[in-house]
Design a protein that fits this description.
The structure holds two protein chains of two kinds. In chain A, β3 (about 110-120) and β4 form a beta hairpin. Helix content of chain A is about 30%, strand content about 15%. Chain A has six helices and six strands; from the N terminus they run ααβαβββαβαβα. Chain A starts with a helix and ends in a 9-residue tail after the last helix. Chain B has helices at about 5-45, 60, 355-365, and strands spanning about 70-80, 85-90, 95-100, 105, 115-120, 125-130, 135-140, 140-145, 150-155, 165-175, 175-185, 185-190, 200, 215, 220-225, 230-235, 240-245, 250-255, 270-275, 280-285, 290-295, 300-305, 325-330, 335-340, 345-350. In chain B, strands 10, 11, 12, 13 and 14 form a five-stranded antiparallel beta sheet that branches. In chain B, strands 1-25-24-23 form a four-stranded antiparallel beta sheet, with no helix packed on it. In chain B, β21 (about 290-295) and β22 form a beta hairpin. The chains are: A alpha+beta, B alpha+beta. The interface between A and B is large, with 75 and 65 residues.
Chain lengths: ~200, ~375
């Protein structure tokens, strides 16, 4: 008699099967939610950034960003700069004169500021209010100079979209997520991290 | 409830608790993994090229060279197998010496590797001494002399104070060693004794008399020696070639910055110089990789190689900051010009185009 009762209580009915399955799904779902929320609380946050070694200065950054003007700006790494009198990031090819006249400048918005330091050296800096990220200066600097001018997403402007609109148009997949704790890609830093890759001596 | 039933119930409870714990844990792990992978998955998603027509620097247009000006053809191309090949020299027998990585390598005239010798430093330049047959190798801050048959004979430190100074080129002439040194965007040429014990500047800049200081926005100050023993200096920051006697008198200076074929492109060229036996000067440029020959008066004579001659990765516009971008040139005794392309560490042997070559090409095309 006892044995019969036990067998009937152990038998899986439809109701008990549904109840067990629902319990399992509930537990797994709770675990998933807790894990996701826990991971969000502890994992590093990510922001969008341009890899200078992949950028080809195609000008898409100037127009594809959801912001106007773009959150992409030219930055200048002074340690690499040659402080040239004739800067190919500042002057158009074979410019009429080596002065600040508009017709001599490669930047269409006068965002690259040229300042005399001592003969024959000049310092170049970026006026970010004027820069809209076309990268024409960076193209000239990287092709003929030391490559000290390059494009970066400035995080005082970037709204960190879930999907960066520029990344969708970038032909070289140069835009990717980086940890928020290291939001910029310095060229010298990249070289230090990849010592086997050679040296930059543009 | 009997003790047996109680035991059975406890066992069943523990089993169910373990199952629930496993489900909860698996769910949590899945959630964490999905959260961590999501940004990377988003970042790598579909990319569509929508390029507009280029403006500003039109590198393709700038790289065009009139084929009628090109008077050389490539006879041979071989890889040095180095990660960072920097300097080039050629021996009397046509053997090619390449400085790079941590040493120098010797190749036969047909490109077969013959010998490789290490140094303690990053090798930056190499020179073959035609008088003794010795091979001089410059590291960043040391000078090494190897015997003609191989084997280190001597070494001495760069005789120049300066924490940021480094050697960019080396040459020998008139019983002296000449070192080109770059330090904080300035260049210097030292005339040293063969044992490195004494050293003095080859010249003092005097702009009023046309002796411009050497500017070195990037570390490519190069030296060459003419058949008369005079010293060629590639003053890249001034876009000039300077010719000095071995005692430091300025004999000639010419050159201008221009993207036209007769000028030196951009801010910092030529990055290498060498002298032909008849005194004409071979120059190499980075950015637009052009190798040309100038007459002693500074007029363009002939183009040896246009940018298209070099590999696609080595041409202007290559954005990879990890790559060296320059050239080095050397001249063989038969007039062939040997070019080292630092970008892909390859050696190109260029020969003058003869009438027979022209006929062959015409027949070949027909």
């Amino acid at each position: 008699m006892d044995k019969e009762q036990k067998n009937s209580s152990d038998r899986m009915t439809r109701r008990s099967f549904i109840r067990s399955s629902a319990r399992g799904v509930l537990l797994t779902g709770t675990g998933w939610t807790l894990g996701y929320l826990g991971g969000r609380g502890t994992a590093e946050e990510w922001v969008w950034q341009i890899d200078p070694s992949k950028c080809i200065y195609c000008e898409n950054c100037a127009t594809a960003c959801v912001l106007s003007p773009s959150a992409v700006k030219c930055v200048h790494e002074f340690e690499i700069c040659g402080y040239c009198r004739l800067c190919t990031g500042f002057f158009v090819p074979d410019s009429i004169a080596l002065d600040e006249s508009a017709e001599n400048q490669v930047c269409p918005t006068n965002a690259v500021v040229r300042k005399f330091i001592e003969d024959p050296y000049y310092q170049y800096s970026i006026n970010e209010d004027n820069c809209f990220g076309c990268g024409r200066c960076a193209l000239g600097c990287n092709a003929f100079g030391n490559g000290s001018l390059y494009l970066q997403i400035r995080h005082d402007r970037c709204v960190n979209c879930n999907q960066c609109a520029i990344a969708l148009t970038c032909p070289t997949e140069a835009i990717r997520r980086v940890p928020k704790s290291r939001p910029y890609d310095k060229k010298l830093q990249v070289q230090e991290e990849n010592p086997q890759g050679g040296e930059s001596e543009a | 409830m009997s003790g047996r039933e109680s035991k059975e119930n406890r066992r069943r409870f523990l089993l169910r608790a373990a199952g629930a714990g496993a489900l909860l844990g698996a769910g949590a792990a899945g959630g964490i993994v999905v959260h961590r992978q999501m940004p990377r998955a988003r970042a790598g998603r579909g990319v569509t090229a929508r390029l507009k027509p280029g403006r500003g620097y039109d590198l393709e247009a700038l790289a065009q060279v009139d084929p009628a000006l090109i008077g050389y053809r490539r006879d041979l191309r071989f890889s040095t197998g180095m990660k960072a090949a920097r300097g080039l020299a050629v021996t009397e027998a046509g053997e090619v010496l390449v400085a790079g990585d941590h040493g120098y390598a010797r190749f036969s005239a047909t490109g077969e590797a013959l010998l490789a010798e290490p140094i303690d430093d990053s090798a930056r330049a190499v020179w073959w001494d035609s008088e003794s047959g010795a091979v001089w190798v410059a590291g960043e801050r040391r000078v090494y002399r190897f015997a003609a048959t191989g084997g280190l004979e001597a070494q001495w430190p760069m005789p120049y104070e300066g924490a940021h100074a480094r050697i960019t080129s080396i040459a020998t002439s008139a019983g002296a060693v000449f070192l080109a040194i770059e330090e904080r965007r300035r260049g210097h040429v030292l005339r040293c004794s063969m044992d490195g014990e004494t050293a003095e500047p080859l010249f003092e800049p005097n702009p009023e008399e046309g002796v411009l200081p050497i500017l070195s926005p990037s570390p490519y100050v190069d030296l060459g020696v003419t058949s008369e023993g005079h010293i060629l200096v590639g003053n890249l920051g001034q876009c000039q070639v300077q010719l000095f006697s071995a005692t430091g008198n300025l004999l000639a200076a010419w050159g201008r910055s221009s993207f036209a074929i007769d000028g030196f492109c951009g801010c910092c060229n030529p990055v290498c110089v060498a002298a032909l036996p008849d005194g004409r000067v071979v120059t190499g440029e980075k950015g637009l990789k052009r190798v040309k020959i100038y007459r002693t008066s500074g007029e363009l004579d002939v183009v040896i190689a246009a940018p298209a001659e070099f590999s696609a990765a080595a041409q202007a516009g290559e954005p990879d900051p990890q790559k060296l971008k320059g050239l080095d040139v050397a001249v063989r005794s038969d007039g062939a010009v040997v070019v080292l392309d630092q970008t892909d560490a390859t050696v190109h042997v260029m020969l003058p185009v003869t009438e027979a070559d022209s006929e062959f090409q015409i027949v070949g095309r027909a």
